[in-house]
Amino acid sequence: VQVVESGGGLVQPGRSLRLSCVVSGFTRSIYAMNWYRQAPGKEREWVARVTYTEGHPEYAASAKGRFTISVDTVKNTAGLQMSSLKPEDTAVYYCNVNFFAVDSKDRNAWGQGTQVIVSS
Q: Which of 5, 48, 86, 120 could serve as 114's disulfide partner, Cβ 3.0–4.6 Å?
């Protein structure tokens, strides 16, 4: 399974940025796709989730109202549209894919991350 994020970069506070995640090489059905982030010196935190088939979104409090997660089951991608960005949104953003699997070790796949820096 390959999970690849893209779209990170340097952006000014108040501006928008869109991240994308594409998953390939999988044989199990996908349950959901998530975005996590890890800021320097902090633990990785969950940002948003979307169920793969229904497209039902959920958000962390820090993302609600500013971020929008989406899924494209044809292209096997998830997007994260981020608006009104703040310096505290600076982090490496990771895509996580949840699979239907009996064995717990087969239920998750992670990308390598994409850096987002919010600074003037």
A: 5
